[in-house]
Amino acid sequence: MPKIVDHAERRDQIAHVACQVVANYGFEQATVARIARAAGYTTGMVAHYFASKQDIVLAALRLILRRIEERLTRERKSGEASLLNMLSEALAVDAQRFTECAFYMAFWGQVSADKKLKRLNAWVHREYMRLFARCLAEHWPEWSGWPPAVRDQVLRSVVTFINGLTASAVTSPSDWPAEMQIEQLRVQLDLLRHWAGLKRLKTAV
Q: CATH number for the domain including 65?
């Protein structure tokens, strides 16, 4: 009896390997042939699932976002999730998340010169904003009472800070152990919450 192939699982496997290859070799050196070899497949097999390298990149980005959302959901269901714990799921605090962040950094390096990648990056940015906005709304009771402009600025600041923090952790891992990343995120969240509270008071006067 022929083996039943789970095509969705195989696509995820190739996307997962692509994350590792891009993280290890950089975007340009992560050819379809290298990704296929690392996955244990022929280039023809990979081409059966993905029409181009950009399709593989898109699948890898979707896989990373899905993993982050799954981790956020798992944290929320644990009953002990704090905002800091939830947002820390996007940091380079372990081997898997380091690979995800390194992949995304390599992807960023190509965005400015490619219109298709710019559109992909805009989509990824919107997805991160959606996920983090949900976290902020769930954990800061005052969030809904802040003016929309204040909420937007806090959200953008959080996303920008996490992007910068992960970039630092990927390029200088010895300087940014997990504990330091999480502590810096805690400080940033405290500062932003305080700032938003002051803005809310000024608006109310």
A: 1.10.357.10
